[in-house]
Known about the structure:
The chain is an all-beta fold. It has a single domain (57-348), classed as TolB, C-terminal domain (Neuraminidase). The protein is built from 1 helix and 29 strands. The protein has one helix at 17-26; strands at 58-60, 76-80, 85-91, 96-101, 106-111, 117-121, 127-132, 138-142, 147-151, 157-161, 163-164, 167-168, 175-177, 183-187, 208-212, 218-222, 228-233, 239-244, 249-256, 260-268, 271-272, 275-276, 278-284, 290-295, 303-307, 313-318, 325-329, 335-340, 343-348. The strands form 8 sheets. A 5-stranded antiparallel β-sheet has the order 1-26-25-24-23, with no helix packed on it. The longest helix has 10 residues, at 17-26. It is globular, with a radius of gyration of 20 Å.
Amino acid sequence: MRNEEIGIEQKSFGLTRRTFIKTATAIAGATVLLPTGLALGREYGPNTPPSPYPEPDVIVINPERFTAKIGNTPIMRLHTGLLWAEGPAWNAVGKYLLWSDIPNNVQMRWLNDDGHISVFRNPSGNSNGNTFDWQGRQISCEHGGRRVVRYEHDGSVTVLASEYEGKPFNSPNDAVVHPNGSIFFTDPPYGSWGDYEGNKGEIFHKEAVYRIDPDGSVTMVTDEIDKPNGLCFSHDYKRLFVADTGPGDIKVWDLEDEATLANGTVFHDMTFDGVHVGPDGLRADVDGNIWGSGGWVGEPHNGVYCFAPDGEVIGHIILPETTSNLVFGGPKRNRLFMTASQSIYAVYVNTRGAHIS
């Protein structure tokens, strides 16, 4: 059911939260993809009124399939004042959230114990995506250095991949680690287009998805994609999902022999009620759902979308900023952290992240 079918115009942002909740209750069981933009004009901060429960900006689109919403938990803004927040990763040992502020050339850290925020690494090579491997070592994709690096426990840096066929990468963007030790990463050109998020330079390769094996070899696994961005494995590591920011969709492949991509197709075109949302980061939960960030089209479309394994959109978290990426974290991996333009947001969910970071 669309908004106009229930007598609510998308532009009617004067609708109160209380009225919306009553309206939503009256049409219980109906699938409403676009609410009326409750996040529009919403303020986050210590001196603003708290959001009423249940959190109105966590939208249940399919009540039978989206069971992740918790009735008595809010969306919280943990930090703001960044330039372009990206690459969130959760460190389970240190109990901290790590992310990149690409233009500022730093990595930041939020401590779970007391919410303390500090600069974690400066400079960071204009890092974008971050993750942790099965030994707890940080993996970072650097725009500035055009490389994928690993930070060792003793503080040294190991360059895992810096070139393919004798030429530098464009600007490695995001990475995920397979249990067998291999690392899949994407290589669009965004960090090479200018000096704001990297270093302006020549584009040497067609954009592609690559794999770094434990022996150090680098293999292109597919270039049948326009501009590969965020990526994630399915909960069982049998599929690989990649956000393609060229056409603006999410693609998926079967992962054969833990190394080869096959049977590529479009998982979702990121169009909702006629509005095409730009995709970016991806994560999987233990129930097999895929969570994807999006934006660039304004509210109420910015935020995170939850997709069932068959591609049906079943939930939506509305944020007031274009959302770049996300990660499940916290001691139970049941808190969703979201990097969104200048800020970091978080909300507890009734599921857990499927992977280590």
